[in-house]
Amino acid sequence: MSIKSKALKPRALRKTRGDIIFNTLVYALFALCALFVLYPLWLVIIASVSDPIQVILGKVMLFPKGFSMVGYQKLLSAPIIWRSLANSIFYTGAGTALNLILTMMCGYALTRPFRGRKFVNVFLIFVMFFSGGLIPTFITVKNLGLYNTPFIMIIMGAINVFNVMIARTFIKGTIPEELHEAVVIDGGTDFSYFFRIVLPLSKACIGVLAVYYAVGHWNDYYTGLIYIQSRNLYPFQNILREMLTVLTSNSSSDFTANITDAAQAARVALAVKYCAVVITTVPVLILYLFLQKYFVKGVMIGSLKG
């Protein structure tokens, strides 16, 4: 190796004793935080496949004890569970698609100059903090013919104002205005610019918003509780809530038809609770795994100048 190449080779920075101590503390704090976050999830998973008696006695700490699938068997044996699961998948998919379309279009519109834009921004901020209330909303839903229909689970909350602000900030701060000018010079319209330029360049924002909306739809039980009357239209969360309530109270129903002992019913109810947490959490974790690459850029959206 020549002297010139040696001179151009970057010299490795020598870590001081303070740097080593600091890095050690950071890694230790990170490991501690990871332990606090991951252990409760691990505990729920192993408790869902353990003997409920061992869970009640507090003997399930790190590994399953007395392997048992009674919780999953009881939870998945009810036909209404599969129907509600299909309903939730449909509500989440269709609702998230509608959310993303309306949010991105509204966010893009707020980046374009038009008369009354300041008033629209103020109005959106106002409705973000104040709503019409439950009774006026219920009457409106009833008059529109959406009560006890699957469409209410998709349309309700179709636009989240905070997410609109995120989309507006991302588009305004990330996509250069020169691209719009170039499209206009070439004879393009706002529609062609939005669908061909804005959306392809907004994958990070769309990925983050998709997770926000999808998790909201998947965990939504309040809308079904208020606006859905037919059990065949219930989302998964409402059926789980009903099932856990019945098992806990040990009332007479389809879920407790074969359970005669109160203590046995309590043990099954405990197992079902852990299994329900696992079943409702796994889809969300899978969604995060597929879209995690967008969060590195997406978490910086709110720090951009609006």
Strands, helices and their partners?
Elements: H1 3-8, H2 17-48, H3 52-56, H4 70-76, H5 79-109, H6 117-129, H7 134-143, H8 151-155, H9 161-174, H10 177-185, H11 190-201, H12 203-218, H13 222-227, H14 236-249, H15 262-291, H16 295-298
Low-confidence stretches: 251-257, 302-306
The outline comes out as flat
Overall structural domain count:
2
Rg, Å, rounded: 26 Å
CATH topology of the largest domain, what is it called? Answer: MetI-like fold
Q: Could you say what the CATH architecture of the largest domain is? A: Orthogonal Bundle
Biggest β-sheet, characterized?
Answer: none
Strand fraction band?
under 5%
Name of the CATH first level of the largest domain:
Mainly Alpha
Count of individual beta strands: 0
Helix content: 55-70%
Mean pLDDT, rounded to whole units?
Answer: 80
Q: Structural class, from secondary structure content?
A: mainly alpha
Distance between the termini: 52 Å
Order of H and E elements: HHHHHHHHHHHHHHHH
What is the helix tally?
16
**CATH homologous superfamily designation of the largest domain:** MetI-like
